[in-house]
Amino acid sequence: MNSPGVALADALSGKRDLLLPCVHCGLCLPACPTYVRMHDENDSPRGRLYLMRAVVEGRIDPAADAFQTHIDRCLGCRACEPVCPAGVEYGTLLEYARAVAVAARPQPWFIRTLLGVFQRPGRMRTVMRLSRWLRASGLAGLGAWIIPRRWHTLRMGLAMLSASGGGKLRRLGRRRRAAPTEASVGPPDAYSALPDTDDKDEVRPARVGLLSGCVQAGLFERVNDATGRVLKANGFAAVTPSTQACCGALHSHSGDLEGARALARVNIAAFEGADVETVVVNAAGCGAAMKGYAQLLADDAEYATRAAAITEKIVDLSEILVRYGMRKGAPIWARVTYDAPCHLLHAQGVAEAPLEMLRSIPQLELVELKGSAECCGGAGLYGITHGELAQSIGSDKVDAILETKAEAVVTGNPGCMMHIGAGLLFRGAGIEAIHPVELVDESYRRGGLY
Amino acid sequence: MSAALTSEVTADLQAIVGEQWVITDPVRLLAYESDGLTAYRRPPGAVVLPADTDDVSQVMACLAHAEVPVVPRGAGTGLSGGALAGPDAVIVATPRMNRIVHVDPENRLALLQPGVINADLTVAARPHGLYYAPDPSSQSACTIGGNVAENAGGPHCLKYGVTSRYVTGLTVVLYDGEVLRLGGLGRDSAGYDLTGVFIGSEGCFGIATEIEVRLLPIPQATRTLLAMFDQLEDAGEAVSAIVARGLLPAALEIIDRETIQAVEASIFAAGYPVDVEAALVIEFDGIEAGLDFEAEEAERCCWEKGAREVRRARSEEERLALWQGRKKAFGAFGRVAPDLLVQDATVPRTRLPEVLRAITEIGHRYGLRLANVFHAGDGNLHPNILFDRSDADELARVEQASREIMAVCVEAGGTITGEHGVGLDKRGYMRMVHSRDVLEVMRATKKAFDPWGGMNPGKVLP
Fold this sequence. Notes:
heterodimer; A: mainly alpha; Fumarate Reductase Iron-sulfur Protein, Chain B, domain 2; Rossmann fold; 3 domains; 24 helices; globular; B: alpha+beta; Uridine Diphospho-n-acetylenolpyruvylglucosamine Reductase, domain 2; Alpha-Beta Plaits; 4 domains; seven-stranded antiparallel sheet; five-stranded antiparallel sheet; about 20% strand
């Protein structure tokens, strides 16, 4: 294999065919959260593609401030993809552009350190243990309150950590109440501990693999536990191969494609060994990354076919639950709203399944969130690395959530849960961001399904 | 005119609009070297992003004082190169001026800043049962300011008319920063119709900074038909037959085989049959009663002209999908070829079949891939030439063919642009359609607004 430096420099040029379909029509501009706030075409998908093309054509140096800034400032939300008539594979191109940008000018030390941690399970566990201690002791929450705004990175990091704690779910929607509008409320035939009969034609896979994830395993163990229980209640036995690693999403988004490939190879081997036909992922960012393994390893002689095979097996948790029909639990008399994770909606094209999952919960009132399809500003490490802009985007999201008067906001990605959670925390809103499976799990628990 | 975009001038601009809203870094200026027509590339000297009329006025005064020309730009979706500036000119772009000041349902009017996106206006008007009628295919991204500059049309302009029919008042900033208020609620008819003169002036007269538009009630019902033909000319004949029968469809659009295949391969696939030579989309709207009659009559016209199949959109979803497919066709060509030249000529409707035949022949003769997707009801053709810019020989053939297509349209009694504007691209064709005297009057009109000649120089007039 080439040295990483050379491979990266060539990476974007090798993708010229992906760049050519952009005809500069501009239909992507209004879909881009950074363009609508920055108003600079360099902060639009079309503008960024133009910068990439300029690098490929040798018109600009990838070390140039403009290339670095604007490629870095992209959220990677991929909201531009579903509005692009030419079908430009923006997400893939962005990863290559990031690789080129990083090769031209290394990232700040703390990003490199962080990415390194995610590649080493031992260190990851230590960091997560420390994080959980900070969270449990209340120091994270305290820090988020007292640390001045100008130390944004630390303040935001601690707030996100604090917000990841959860804890209000058990009290949510316990009291029976009249449903305000019929249309938005889950099935009224309520409370039944009996499973729906499986009337779908497809054969339900008995064994499925489950990605534990790193943030998910470290900070959202309760979501992974709930996932296991809900899968089991619906007839799937989940196996979690112990050799699996981080999915590599943060690495490819940050331009460390070699790091991402190394992790992908580990996961491919791990899930091949688990002998499963389906691999379930409960974090949108990880799911999107794993569905991209085929593309990521397309030029890898040994792994290309294996990557393609794994890619076929990846499903989001909501997809598998909804596809085979879900059991019903006890009612939850609560008003919630749903925010679509970009990497579920735009990257994976999964729009309805999480909503259906929520509609299966009796009496749950699901209210529409204005701008649900727009990024919350979390975007992996973005909330920490691009403080001001991320907060402006996040603040609009929190406004929309509060407008719904929901008692919880539901979203299926740890990054979004933490970023939105932190935003809610700063506002003192008193509501939480929770994963859809947590609500289903709670409904099952109250219904005595376990 | 000695243009001088010195660092003092950019400092003055920064003092007016704020440092972050002036772009001077040459790398960042590359994104502004083209609009929706990538055949021309010219990076501007700077880009300024003002916030309101006052900003624009001060910016213009500053630039006029420094003798630096100005090029207005909206979302940069234009297809005639009208928003391009050279290195000695400054782009004044409107995306920050994106506020809908108010929607006034009693008077069926809305007051907007120029950076408001066309489709967003309809979203804001819909709760009042109203909508904004002109619907250019780029309406999900293009701005009202750009629509005013180009006097934009769209598929439904067949029945409803183009932008000029809907703009009732304008606030305009002239080259020297002077602010004019033209037309407006209740005072639009005294004296010369300067609002009308300004609309379609392609940024050569000034910059519109506030726009008052008329809204329409949303039609009660629609009928959308899709007729399939084995000959492109037959579809053209059917269009004439429908109009000759005295029907007034809201839209009559033809999409040819090449276009259908591009659209159906994109995410906006709408179920257009990929094996026909042409599809004709016919839409009627208005009061429910009578629509079925009109639809049946139109259907009969299609059968008479040899349609292979005619079907109706069964649901609103299906109707919207057909329109999405039609409107996103331009971008969808990106999958087919790296470069695209979309022409925009208008011919008398009755001459459509022969002009289509001639265009097809020109394509064959030059060995070029041509795709037709157009507003057939208006006789507004959009032949798209698909090519690869990196092939110099092909590029030369494209330019030659493009010129011949124009000549054919003009000879048939048509003109060189239906809605995309003259801009940079069609300046050379102006003498084909206008006499020297007409061009002189145009020049004099331009002088009345812009005596110095600093507004969007080098556009429109030959």
